[in-house]
From TrEMBL:
SUPFAM superfamilies, per the entry: Metallo-dependent hydrolases
Source organism, top-level taxon: Bacteria
Organism field: Pelotalea chapellei
The protein, known as: Amidohydrolase family protein
Amidohydrolase-related domain sequence ranges: 8-289
Stored Pfam families: Amidohydro_2
Amino acid sequence: MRSSAPLIDIHCHTAGIGAGSSGCFVSSAMRRNKRFRFFLKTFGVTEAELIDRGDELVLERLSQGLAESRHVTAAVVLAMDGVVNARGELDEAATEIYIPNSFLGQACHNYSNLLFGASINPYRRDALERLEQAAADGAVLMKWLPSIQGIDPADPRLKSFYRRLYELKLPLLTHTGNEESFTRADNSLADSLRLRSALDEGVTVIAAHCASNGKNEGQPNMERLLSLFAKYPNLFADFSSLTQVNRLGHLGKVLRHTRIHDRLLYGSDMPIINSFITSPWWHARHIPLLEVRRIASIRNPWDRDVELKMALGVTEEIMGNSGRIVGAGSPRPILPPPV
């Protein structure tokens, strides 16, 4: 793939257990779940390594993988705020995974190819102050997972948060469609139609995963998302996770809507691309066998992901959209730590 626009992955996860005083944590319920060890393995780390070297080791491994990629220039790494209680404070008992902005924002400055994606539950008592701090720390977007964080994007109380997002020119990357990676979820909160409040305030909204699975009010979530594009030029969608075995054919469905090709953004959903769940072999019905074999032999997970998605119909022009949205034309210089 050769394109004049940089290829930026706008949907990359990290992980942490609190090692190295990161402030991250994983709930005991999640740590007992088989997903916990699966995710550590796909990140290429072990729990023992994190305890020994700290949670920043995950970011180091992500940066190394990106440096070795032929296609992907940089990635937006996403923080993960938690559930908030009635007092507007973090509810640790109800939170399964927590990756604070304070840790991630600083750690990303140590790597020229990692961009900081902040996460703030807008129901926090000091949400606006946290938003200002995230912007000052170099955040390139805001990430929500409403069905897990208990956020209702249609809540009128969020208007001031949306207005400040718009003023700061920070896109809102928010999960749409059903969430299946946690032990519990309220998927009604990830209904695309709930995003109209943010869109009406002018916020650039990125619907993660193109709302490609699940239904709300009996209607497929993807249909509900597609109904919004004509009215809102500030609406975009990332096609991360659409090559997973449980989403076979979903990427093709999205690409058939050519009128939104300029609104589609590349995201990997790392570390999922580093697992059997996104193996090219699941797509052998749609890609020539020799091409499947070639793509499957690619060692770098980002390169394998890019080439699989292009084999399924994503164009170079579509791949270039994400770099323009996050304003990351080239890797940043490594910044010194604050005094």
